[in-house]
Amino acid sequence: WWRKDRGGAAISFGGLKKDRERECTVLRVTPRNGKVFEAWFDNKSHMLARIVEEQGYFQITTNFGDYRPVNGVMIAHEVVVDSGTGPSGLQRLTLRAANFREGLSKQNFAPPAGALSDFAFAKGLHETTFPFRLLNNHIFADVKINGRGPFNFLFDTSGHDILFPATAAAIGLKVEGAAPWGGAGDKVVDFGHAKIDTLEIGDAKLSNQIVSVLVTEPREVEGFTVDGLIGFEVFRRFVTRIDYGARTITLMDPGTFDSRTAGTPVKFEFYDNLPQVHGAFEGIPARFSIDTGSRNEVTLHKPFVEREALLQRHQKNVLAVDGWGLGGQTRSHMIRGASVRLGDVKIPDVIAGLSTSTKGSFSDANTDGYVGSGLLKRFTVTFDYGNRTMYLKALPKPVPDTAAYDRSGMWINATSNDFEIIGITQGGPAEKSKLKVGEHIVAVDGNPVKPEQLSDFRMKLRDDPPGTIVRLMIKSQAGEREVALSLRDQI
User: Fold this and answer.
1) pTM for this entry
2) 227 to each of 117, 134, 142, 204, how far by Cα in Å?
């Protein structure tokens, strides 16, 4: 690690620590242009016993044991990798045999150059355009799997191609494996894999695809059934245009795509499967992950918030539930920010969440924030993954519900027949009206509610002007009562 003709890392002493019964000397190793990790050495054998490093928002611990000589070199024959996701995430590896040969050329480690050939357009077309539904600031469109459907899929640049278990069961797919997966929120869930013959979106068809199987959007969070996600695997094959004004998605052949009218180019890098752009929040340089699956405008990660003392700079804020991800609900201090810049595109007057998450994707120090559809819907957005470029073309007029924040002071989810209050903002209108977590909204302004109206009701609580009185029929263990909720600005 420290030899100049190898890693050239900086080394410092990290103290003495216990690994079960073994006492270890710990070195802190910082590679050139790299991230620090810990290397633990057994004080009796002097062999490497453990490596501890941060990968994304997980702490990865790799333990080494059963050292034996191979051609005079001591090699660990047992390796256990703990991904920090619980017992189901443990990887146990046993070395059966090893030998040494001549060193390989760099070409052996280069990415394969082969082109993907598992997708095509119908009728000799070079693109396809189809409508989408913008609900809860999420993009939903129809997708067919193995000729069945249509199914209701969320289009999400932060995700992969995913089927929900009920969808996989309806099609009769065999699901194999169970491994942990994390996202927004603190929890970790298990997922498996399945193979599908065809995936059809508009007039585009993909063949022989491997998809993950898990639930990322519970029905109660959206108010309707979600059948799956369209993510990285589709975005990397097509140039994808999302026109938030016209509510259409266009998938284009990368070989015939003409960028001249697409808008302002913003270069990005891949952080895992996520497009990550350089920009700024209120003039502070920042790296943003572009996430069409986020309902919010901007969510700033806790390490960035603390490093830049953003909470101290924004005394006017409210602490509230601001979203729901794979790991459950998320909470942030909500503020009105002066501006966000993505590449050379500056967007004024944004709603930003200063995340409080100590686990999950919003605790990741490798990116400073997420930009979601709440902000992107000011544009027609085109993703060219092959050239690592996003194009932003401002809409002639903003779509409804832009730069608006909740005026009710509560987070609501759907049940099978009404709405449930999940979170109450301290000092907000809902608290003033004596509403409580766990109570149910069964009628609004005299009209019984339906779960599928959740998106419209959330929008009403954002967009109706301050001073509007919303009459709610509330059901609790004590019975039913009517509450007059007076909307007002919170930030």
Assistant:
1) 0.86
2) 26, 16, 10, 19
